[in-house]
């Protein structure tokens, strides 16, 4: 199996009278984020993390700010393009994790909504999206929103290969009998090691405070 990791970072300044959009959601606030597009700092950094994971450049490569087509653009368009690049490279998302750094508004009460919306845009489960928020203590950047993101991808072929192996093994019962006798000759009749059967405790990913 092949896995890849990606990292993204973005920042935008707050501007009074502009709609605030984070993670594709319109958020009630007196200021929004200034930018050539809708200024969605979270979707921009996720887009960069996805493109970086498959070495496909960055958001500016695909959507230069000098291009008038992207004036006030919905940033989900950028994300969609990054998803296409990931799929073209033969990968899919395992999970993403993000950090938002901004003084206001408070993100905790709306983190669940942002997570659900980002998961929908990425076509993954909300439990595979981490949304965390910090205030910029000691950074003197009260008028700025910053976002960081990491993504983990896995190759699509890996699962297809595994399914083929399972299908072949199921087709031929004698193969299974042969494998059983080989295993027996190696470990006797003892059950195989307990490590693999051990279940990890379930982590409640809905609890994001
Ligand atoms: Zn941006």
Describe the structure.
This protein is α+β, with helices and mostly antiparallel strands and 209 residues long. It contains 6 helices and 7 strands. Strands 4-1-7-5-6 form a 5-stranded mixed β-sheet. It has a two-stranded antiparallel sheet with strand order 2-3. Strand 2 and strand 3 form a beta hairpin. Helix 1 packs parallel to helix 3. The longest helix has 16 residues. It is elongated. The chain starts with a strand and ends in a 22-residue tail after the last helix. The chain binds zinc ion. The site of zinc ion has 5 residues, from strand 1 and helix 1.
Helices and strands, with pairings:
Elements: E1 3-16, E2 20-22, E3 25-27, E4 31-33, H1 41-53, H2 59-62, H3 76-88, E5 91-101, H4 111-122, E6 129-134, E7 144-155, H5 156-171, H6 173-187
Parallel strand pairs: 5-6
Antiparallel strand pairs: 1-4, 1-7, 2-3, 5-7
Helix pairs in contact: 1-3
The structure holds zinc ion.
């Amino acid at each position: 199996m092949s896995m890849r990791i990606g990292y993204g970072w973005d920042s935008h300044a707050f501007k009074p009278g502009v709609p605030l959009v984070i993670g594709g959601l319109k958020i009630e606030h007196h200021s929004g984020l200034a930018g050539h597009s809708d200024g969605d700092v979270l979707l921009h950094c996720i887009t960069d993390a996805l493109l970086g994971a498959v070495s496909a450049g960055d958001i500016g490569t695909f959507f230069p700010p000098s291009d008038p087509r992207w004036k006030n653009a919905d940033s989900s368009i950028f994300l969609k393009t990054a998803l296409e690049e990931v799929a073209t490279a033969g990968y899919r998302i395992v999970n993403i994790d993000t950090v938002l750094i901004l003084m206001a508004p408070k993100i905790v009460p709306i983190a669940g909504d942002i997570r659900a919306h980002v998961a929908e845009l990425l076509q993954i489960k909300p439990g595979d999206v981490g949304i965390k928020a910090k205030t910029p203590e000691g950074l003197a950047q009260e008028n700025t929103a910053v976002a960081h993101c990491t993504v983990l991808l896995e190759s699509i072929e890996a699962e297809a290969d595994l399914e083929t192996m399972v299908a072949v093994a199921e087709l031929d019962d004698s193969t299974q009998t042969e494998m059983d006798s080989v295993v027996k000759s190696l470990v006797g009749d003892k059950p195989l090691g307990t490590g693999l059967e051990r279940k990890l405790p379930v982590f409640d990913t809905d609890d994001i405070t």
